Amino acid sequence: MNIIFDCERMKYPYTGLFEYCEQLGKSLQTHLTEDDDISYYLPEKYKVIFGKREHIPLKKIHKLFPVGIRRPAVWHTTYQLSRYMKNGGRKAKKALTVHDLNFLYEKTSKGKINKYLKALQRNIDKSDHIIAISEYAKTDLVNHLKINCPLSVIYNGCNVAEFPEFDTPAYRPVHPFLFSLGTVECKKNFHVLPCLLKGNDYELIIAGKRNEDYVEKIMAEAAKHGVSERVKLTGPVTGEDKYWYLKNCAAFLFPSLAEGFGIPPLEAMHVGKPVFLSTLTSLPEIGGNHAYYFHDFDPDNLCATFESGMNHYAATRPEMSIIQHAASFNWEKSASEYMKIYKSILE
Question: Would the pTM of this model clear 0.90, i.e. be above it?
């Protein structure tokens, strides 16, 4: 079985899709038999990530013509709105991963929502098997689109690279700190967090690619609560920095409004930290009974939830159960399930 794994979204580093492609792409190699082969369709500069396996350089012309792309048995499209799906050719079987329908919940115009739905439906119609990354994403698909092929749920994994000797983060806080991680944009809802710094000496560190307009909103909220000097937005961080912040934070905060899955909370759970999530979209599915939840974003309620959660964590010391929960989401398991799907659509 020859597989082409489409990683075209790796052209955007420091994103969840980059992480997904890298981790699943590597893990798939461990499940190949002597009759299997896998190639990676991705930007040239990232070819080293997948070792000596064949890579197919991503080119703009491929949106129109699949120049230099051989026909595989299975073409796996990892971005649901991809314009490159046709490059697999008519005879190749198509697997499509759908990460989320977040555009339904963001401040998106009705016209854009319809545009996205139509584009997604076109890719669904070309597919032989669809994979959703959470039950929530699957439900959204069934409710908003027409599915005419098998639809499965395969959870993402969680792989945290550890750097126990590293001790020089890009920014070293001078007080105990709270940590959050993700692309700094409106749907992540980070601006509700500065209120948690009132009445204590915590710092808040938010790491991730910055949208400067939204950064202004976060800092305006920090100023409103008189905590501006303790809110730090670092921009993208290295793996070493991320591990240091996860390992040393007092708690991890993730009040997102729209998530198809949510890898950052699991990364914090991987090191046993108390994790505070919103109750929206897929996050309760991922955090389960091992996270604390913001049921709304009123500052008083946020502070009350945070205080009660931290008190519970201090009293019960649930680190090991949190770590075990995170370990149940692993890329080896995900890769095994994807390989079963690749084989099933060839039968």
Answer: no
Cα–Cα distance, 73 to 93 (Å, whole number): 6
Q: List domains and CATH numbers for the chain.
A: 2-157+330-344 (3.40.50.2000), 177-327 (3.40.50.2000)
pLDDT-based confidence at residue 87 (cuts at 50, 70, 90):
confident
User: Which regions of the chain does DSSP assign to beta strands (E)?
Assistant: 2-6, 37-42, 55-57, 74-77, 93-98, 129-132, 151-153, 177-181, 203-207, 231-235, 251-254, 275-278, 292-294
What number of other Cβ atoms are within 10 A of residue 200's Cβ?
16
Closest CA to 341 of 73, 129, 79: 129
- DSSP label of 83: S
Distance CA 43, CA 9 (A): 9
Establish how many alpha carbons lie within 13 A of residue 160's alpha carbon, considering only the half-sphere containing its beta carbon: 24
104-151 pLDDT, tens digit each = 887 778 999 999 999 999 999 999 999 999 999 999 999 999 999 999
Bridge-based pairing state of the strands 37-42 and 2-6: parallel
